[in-house]
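Reviewers asked in the last cycle whether our approach scales beyond single polypeptides. To address this, we selected a multi-component target totalling 1163 residues and predicted its structure end to end. The input consisted of the following lines:
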Amino acid sequence: VRHKAAIAALTLTLSGCGLLRGCTSSQPPIHINPSMDDQPKALPQAASGFFYDGSELRLPVEGTVARGELREDDAFFKGMGPDGKPVAKIPVTVDAALLARGSARYEIYCQPCHDARGDGKGILFQRGNVPTSSFHLEKIRAYPDGQMFDIMTNGSGLMPSYKWPIPPADRWAIIAHIRELERERAEAVARRATP
Amino acid sequence: MNETYWRSLGELEDSPSFRANLEREFPEGASELPEGVSRREMLMLLGASLSLAGLASCRRPVEKIVPYVTAPEEIVPGVPLRYATTMPFGRSAYGLVVESHEGRPTKIEGNELHPTTSGRSNVRMQGAILGLYDPDRAQHVRHGDKDATWAEFVAAWAELEKKHLEDGGASLALLSPSFASPTRARLLQEFKGRFPKARIAIYEPVSDENVLAATALVDAGTSSHPVLHVENASVIVALDADILGNDPEDVRQIAGFAVGRRAAIDGKPMNRLWAVEAAYSLTGAMADHRLRLQSRQIPAVVAALATRVLGGAGGVDVPGVEAKWLDAVAKDLKDNRGRGLIVAGPGQPDAVHAAVLALNAALGNVGTTVTYHESANAALPRRASLNDLVSAMNAGTVTTLVILGGNPVYDASADLEFAAAMKKVANAIVLATHVDETAKLAGWSIPSAHFLESWDDAAAVDGTLSVVQPLIVPLFGGKGATELLGLLATGKDQSGHDLVRQTWKPILGEAAFEKRWNRVLHDGLLAGSATAPVTPNIDRQASSKLAAGTANGIEVHFRPSPYLHDGRFANDGWLQELPDPVTKLTWDNPALLSPATAKSLGVADEDLVTVTVRGVSLTLPVTVMPGQADGTVMLTLGYGRKDAGRVGSAVGADAYAVRCSAAPDVDTATLVKAAGSVKLSPTQEHGSMEGRPLIREGSLEEYKHDPAFAQEAVELPKLESMWNEKTYDTGHQWAMTIDLNSCVGCNACVVACQSENNIPVVGKEQVRRGREMHWVRVDRYFEGAPEQPRMIFQPVPCMQCENAPCEQVCPVAATVHDDEGLNVMVYNRCIGTRYCSNNCPYKVRRFNFFNYTKDTPELLKLVQNPDVTVRSRGVMEKCTYCTQRINAAKLDARLAGRPLVDGDVKTACQQACPASAIAFGDLRDPSSNVVKTKADPRNYALLAELNSKPRTTYLAKVRNPHPDLAVS
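The resulting structure, written as structure tokens, was:
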């Protein structure tokens, strides 16, 4: 008798599950114990019922300076020399660690368009035929490093600004990596030219 | 060490109700389940919408991600930034560093570079962040009873202005609170130039103009402001002056005082504080010798001291004061020439201040313990200017009145009848934070921007210049006082940013302005801008001009609320619920009477009494305050607001009603018992610890003789544990010490903790039931006879016991130990049995009897610390040693690839403490401050005999009585 009852209960449960299967609901799942999952506080990137744009994220007031964000070194933060012109060389020491960092950041942020070798034949070019600059063009090789920094900071043509995801130190690391790519390519070309 | 400590008169008398409370361990209601529908005042008041959460709450909430459209370069979501800014408070400037999460300010700290705060903070600074997100703030420009816009106001002003420019502003009046700001001072000058005949009144209900009257400079018209250097003083004589509590410069002064207290520990001479006052204050509590005396007798005390110190034929005796006492003070001052400091309170008349200045000068103290700085850039308060203005308004000669902040309808003395006068003015333009008593009567009311929303500047009392940098654009489109003054003074609508920069161009110089300006914004001040001290006019004969006070009738004092000040912070729930440092009362302002005065009137705590001053009466409850001078009644300003907002309206009694413009500080009153009583909500008798030696103190002599006196106060039994004890010998081991020798009981730690840890406000009725939620409380004990007791404070957070009694009784392991020695709460596991709280010998656990945050308005969600859980109903909570700060510091250190060093982690209470009484750090780091303080022989653990092994320990207090009065 107990067996039968158990089997009946099991059948009922399974058939219940089966009936509900495939039914969709626009409502979120049932949640019996709230368990402080949803707290009345503003979390990063959450929606807000107060601000007109619906986001908790606010922009700092224009003209304010946060602690540690003084950015007095124009060469480092803007790529600009005291004369207001782009600096010719990277204002930080280029060493193996910087190049490694630059290579890693390059893979994340630059490679999708500019490709691993800097030819501008990345996935975006392959799939979408989006024209992307090659770093090996004479024009770009002649750019002062400060100008490269400015392009990454503020964007250029179709390329958007990367100042938010890439902090200045990483921008210089990426430039160091790009210069390394250019140097390697130039050397390879030179080797081929002189048999 | 065998003094009897008591916490309230009830305990001393061992009254039946106190015994009943004690036996219950929690006061009535605190441990009971809510019966019926309880009046959850705060919740109902703050509940913007009573959402029918029934069905919706069964579903998982839908959360949307709304990222930046154009992300700013410096912000990484989730990583806070810090901005230096300044909080102007009267003529004081508090240098702040404000934490901002994605462009929203969430926590205020002191700016370590600024001389006023040097990284510390006070209650007002901590409470200001809640003031920013107050949902009751004025939200629209209003013209009459219709909403309008700023542009419409600017257009209307342009019309008005034409008329006033014609006659030089003869019928124009400007009423402003006192300020010290280069930009506002410049604009005020321009305003005077534009409207030479305009009437200007500078009014502060809580005014220090008596001090300023005595410190006028040689060239009349300017005055100088005294800056106390308490750290240089070996002998401090406070005459009706609460320099450690109710003072705009409290942070600086407490810090200086703590330096002099700690000197004893370093083997240097310890300072000695003498206090003469009518009602108990924090300064009186810290005093080595305190004399309770009616305020009107202070002139006689000054005269007696002057005679003793300077010679001459002045008064020698003060009625009711032992000559021995005065002799000792005078001797102490003479023994410490150049290292003494005499301060009189702002409520004392001009003559007292002149005499005190002469005394300080004669003793060589001016220049070392007190310096005077020219009040440049400041508008000095003058109550008489308001009186003149009101006469002019009544005479009909004012057609346009501009009120640049403040709330005169509420806080002007009642006899002026400001509201009636204001109704006679055709165009009343009011800049107000709330639609308050004054804004309601205004023709035009303009929402005032919070200091965290506006560009402004400020000068500290020592002249140090700083810029008020906004953290967020005005939430309700408010305008700063500077912007409104700018419109009046120039006729052009200019932004605060432009106005402030115009002022700072000549200060910083045109060349390299941008660079210097950014440096000022970054640091939060202009380095080196403090002004050189000046010497005020000294009247050497001042003490002979002191008039003896009349001694008829009961003396009534008006003091600003230590938290709400003149009433401007009345709608701040944190400050309303913060227990008064001395009475430990929340949400009310009873009349304070001495035990003898109360007895003669036949009143006891909570009975109503009618105070009549010059024919005007006010009925309010009584609190009997031990240590108060007989024949005095103390009334606290700032309560009884009619239109403060949902939190602050109709809380307490309006003491301004009986305040007369002729005697706004001290007056004479008659008191009669009134029928009935009112329930008050003290936090005082909650969680009593049965008279065990919780606070240990000794005199300097005792300390020198036996530095370990505190450890010997209790003979510990052999401490054996029932459990196999864990040895905490790896990783970080967090611990804290609290130095009772430095702690002045100011409560800054309590609000700092509330702000950092999302602690809810529960309302008056819940506090009465003992359900207040503060994670750290400041216990206050009395010792000695109830007429003249001493007072002592002890902050009590969670002790983070290694052998935690709470952990052993939790059935669901919701409170457990981590391997860094923290006693942690797992909120989700907590099922609310409250066994832990019952088993906690320190009574530091707090229980959420209600879902206090359920109906939090959208705006108030922004004040919460995103890094801390907002607890729900049925959950136990307590101090966590700011575990979120520990983890943030560990992450930062790891990202920077360096080990965590001492000082990387600061708990919120430690960071706020003006006295630096709290040390926190890693027990396994031998160089850490906490290891050093634990090695101090004064170190003792609370209830060590229970073998709970608390990580938080105390350093005993040392008092420094004068040898001639050692018995007193």
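Helices of chain A lie at 2-20, 74-78, 96-109, 111-114, 123-128, 138-141, 145-154, 168-193. We regard this as preliminary and will revisit it once experimental data from Aim 1 are available.
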